[in-house]
Amino acid sequence: MIHHIELYVSDLKESIVFWGWLLEELEYKPFQNWDEGRSWKWGESYIVLVQAEEAYLDAGYHRKRVGLNHLAFNGKSRVHVDHLKNQLEKKGIEILYKDKYPYAGGKSHYAIYFEDPDRIKVEVVAPN
């Protein structure tokens, strides 16, 4: 089991809005809160957002560079994945591979794909 994942973000306030909504939809609970960060916990694991220092913002993030490509979460059901898709669209968040939804990852992989404000790809997968 992963202990925690820490993501440095370019705009903490914007990322808190995005990740807070999503993580709470996935049953994570608010955990820690301080000036430069926020975290949400599920079981013994937690996800942390930290404001990147200004000196490091210029390099930016791209999932095709060396490093993290995406985070994939378990959804509760296909209905839950569809609900998330509808909520993302209402929030104006672009759905990746929309023309292949919900099988962009293959016929046995019912999932939604999208990006966070820093363009980290996020996937939520329904159980088989």
TrEMBL record:
A matching Pfam family: Glyoxalase
Assigned keywords, A-Z: Metal-binding
PROSITE patterns for the chain: VOC
Residues covered by the VOC domain: 1-127
Signal peptide limits: none
Database matches in InterPro entries: Fosfomycin_Res_Enzymes (IPR051332), Glyas_Bleomycin-R_OHBP_Dase (IPR029068), Glyas_Fos-R_dOase_dom (IPR004360), VOC_core (IPR037523)
Protein's name according to its UniProt entry: Catechol 2,3-dioxygenase-like lactoylglutathione lyase family enzyme
